[in-house]
């Protein structure tokens, strides 16, 4: 079983809940992308289904632990995302509601449904699930993961035990990457972009598309500094086909602007963005009011993209707003 770095309090709370036979039937993990939500969902699932726990921890080597780790335990269900914009549909919620009444067939007598990376979660499937999670069968457990709790209806949130995940320290990230066998140079470049966010550091090293988005964010920062609308439009155009890519770039750019503001108040502080030099230059280029407006424009653009507004239109409007501000 892979070691989980950080979120220590959360890990011990989950462990205590299960070992004291007070496991919550519905749990939600929320936090930024890469902060360990899915690892924690898997850990909680292992705690619930492990056949031979050792000191309250999953053993990591029984059939259940190995199957969960490999992603094919018959009583760990990842419902299908067949709704609009990659969300869950009413049909999926309906089939979970029926399936939940089929008893599991494993030594612990439990089954777990994992709704991972929830976004664009329509209220109809949520309402369909609500009745189930209000009165779940004794053996059924539900885990939701999302970047923000705002994805869910208040009625769903009120029935979940919610845990916010945090990113780790840079030292923990270096340690985790070294454990995976990465070179010092790879570790340095990943940590300089994603700091203590171990999930994003790993993605950066494995996933070419993340490196492209980092480069793109750097180009966008340069175009803001130079007030070059053409360069900004051209850069945005390269991700305009994919909503998730666009939102990833918005998030990275937003962190840069956040760092620029912090640097104005506390020079020489280390940031959370992927481009320390760019944050320094943006900090000289923008005053706090301009930065606040850019942050608002990015938030507005993000919610427009999530609401299925045409991406090229959103990007064109955003470029005009940024150039009009700086
Ligand atoms: Zn086990």
Strand order, largest beta sheet: 2-3-4-1-5
Instruction: Please tell me what the overall shape is.
Output: globular
What is the arithmetic mean of pLDDT? 94
What is the fold named in CATH at topology level of the largest domain?
Answer: Rossmann fold
Describe the structure using short key phrases.
single chain, 326 residues, alpha/beta, Rossmann fold, Zinc Finger, Delta Prime, domain 3, 3 domains, 5 strands, globular, binds zinc ion
Please describe the topology of this protein.
Blueprint lengths: L7 H12 L6 E5 L6 H13 L13 H8 L5 E2 L12 H10 L11 E5 L7 H12 L5 E7 L7 H4 L3 E4 L5 H10 L4 H11 L3 H9 L1 H19 L2 H9 L5 H23 L10 H10 L2 H19 L4 H15 L1
Parallel strand pairs: 1-4, 1-5, 2-3, 3-4
Helix pairs in contact: 1-2, 2-3, 4-5, 7-8, 8-9, 9-10, 10-11, 10-12, 10-13, 11-15, 12-13, 12-14, 14-15
Zinc ion (ZN) binds next to helix 3.
Describe this structure in words.
The protein contains 15 helices and five strands. The protein is an alpha/beta fold and 326 residues long. The protein folds into three domains: 8-164, 3-Layer(aba) Sandwich (Rossmann fold); 169-206; 208-325, Zinc Finger, Delta Prime, domain 3 (Up-down Bundle), CATH 1.20.272.10. A five-stranded parallel beta sheet has the order 2-3-4-1-5, with helices on one face. Helix 5 links the parallel strand 3 (111-115) and strand 4 (140-146). Helix 1 runs parallel beside helix 2 (37-49), helix 8 (184-194) packs across helix 9 and helix 10 (208-226) packs antiparallel against helix 11 (229-237). It is globular.
